[in-house]
Structure of PBS lyase HEAT domain protein repeat-containing protein:
Amino acid sequence: IIQTQFNALDDEGLIKDRLNLLQYLCISTETSDVVVQCYKQVFKKHNKTCAGLLCVISVKLNEQQLDDVFEFFMDGFDDNHIICAQLILKIALNLNKRQLNKVFECLMNAFDKIDNGKIKFCDKCEHALATISSQLGGKQLDNALQYFIHRRPSYFYGDHTGAVQFILNLKEEQLDYFFECLINQLFDEKGDIYNRQSRAEFLGKFSMKWNERQLNDVFRYLINGLSGDLFFRISCAELLGKLSMKWNEKQLNDIFQYSINQLSDEKTDRNYAELLGELSMKWNERQLNDIFQCLINQLSDEKEDKYNRRKYAKLLGKLSMEWNEKQLNDAFNSLKDMLNKDYYWEYREALETITVKLSGKQFDNAFNYFISESKGICLFYGIAQRLDEKQINISLNYCMDKLNDKNEHPNIRIKCIRILEIISNKCNEQQLNEAFNSSMHIFTDKNNDKNLRDKCAELLGKISVNLNEKHFDDAFQYSNENIRGSCVQSLVTLSKKWNDKQLDITVQYLIDRFQNINGHDNFIFRNLLKGIAMKLNETQIDSVVTCLINGLKDNSTWNHTWYAEFIGFLSIKLNKKHLDDVFECLNGLEDENKCIRELCKTSLETISTKLNDKQLEKVINVLISGLKDEYTRESYAKSLGVFSTNLTDKQLENAIHTLIDGLKDKDKDVRNSCAKSLG
């Protein structure tokens, strides 16, 4: 019967739904037999779905039924070995020893066929073999280990969490053998360089499993590997750093001597510098002095590769906590010279890091340098918090001069705005007033650079909350006259200190704009209204709602949904009369349902408690009717859940029938939404 019904279905989504429902029929031995047989019958056409469901019901099957399932899979293993392997991994813990042995034997036979080219290579089968052999232990684990080491060593070096667990399950003798094979393969110079690299990374994952003798062997091989090929050298250097806690004092000294010698070699690369940095906490004062001098020499060596020099600069910054006062000053001067020659971010970042650690006089000299050099402006970002009052004032004047200079490059002027934002928290009232006037000048001089004006608007929003009333009024006025994008955010920030008059001006401004709403402005005014809605008084709410209702009465339906959404932002402030007027206006509109949906979209829970029975019924009917539209069903199903406690018996019945119909929808997301709403 079931097979006949499946043959009559031609909708993939419906077939999967029916197959999913069958799992809930496994309530007895007899019904479980029927379900298993059904999955086996349709397996060829729906193998992935059936395999997954067989895995789900496996905990409900008895031993005989589970044997039956495995016999079925083993018979067709060659054709479906990937799916079978995935199934084995999911239910391995439910198998007894006899079943595990049977699976192990099947997998080993499968690998013989893979090696002979009869079956396509499958990493899922590898993982299944590792999992099953780990559970069995003994001879089977030995056989699997031998197979992986000699025929599939790549299994250990890929992204397999199962490989990690497999190694952790090895006995001491097996681990010794694995270690010996790994080391031999790792340092086989005839081996593929990328495989050697992967083996080095894998070796590090199991450092906690190696004994002292093995760690000594690893260290010796890694040190020798530092003179190998480039990529292998990188892997060995990284591993030496990662295993730093394992090395004794003599081994650390060997790493230091080798790295410092290589760092002084003109043919060296940056890996030794990174290794020295990785182990910085291990070095004594003498070693740190040697590292510092070597980095300074390499940084100033014009014959040195530019990329390496940038890495040395980065390391100077990274180790800045280790340098004494003289070294910090020397590092600053060296990095400053490099920044003048090549403007790389590594030099700038290291210079910032070094500068904030300079002593008083040295910091003053560094500050004077930044002020005098055009490139120095970018370095203010990192040192702003260390500036004293005098330096704040100098920085302020410097930035304002640049900002007011129409001939200055726009990027420099924007950077000055950024600096003003950073130091504004440390400015006194007079300094804030001066910064404010410079920012206002960008608006009053009719500057056409939109990006510059936007940045100034952001700056105004940040500093205006700390201004006196006169400046605050000016900021408010110009933000209104130039309201676009970032200015909206500034207005919302400013609104925290608005008085009634200023709020009235903004409300009137919004009303004027709502009467001529168009294009991108919709988003701008929506964000402003949303940001200040909670601050509006009853009179202001009345004015805005009246304006928006008039918009809904307009013959053009183009902006109706916008007006409805805007009203929704005010939902928490709306009274009975407002809602009556809104629903009266919506009644009979061509796009009434869409408008009701937009009205409730952002305020479902709030507005549902304010509607009268008639209005509530209308909203619910709109949502139910929306369930019948395949394009809106998902969103309407979610919304209906909010109103579910307010449904009458008839409405609930209609909603349930419609949601059940939605379970047949071709769209998986729609089916899920309807299922959640029904739940």
About this structure: Residues 620-679 form one domain. The radius of gyration is 36 Å. The longest helix spans residues 97-115.
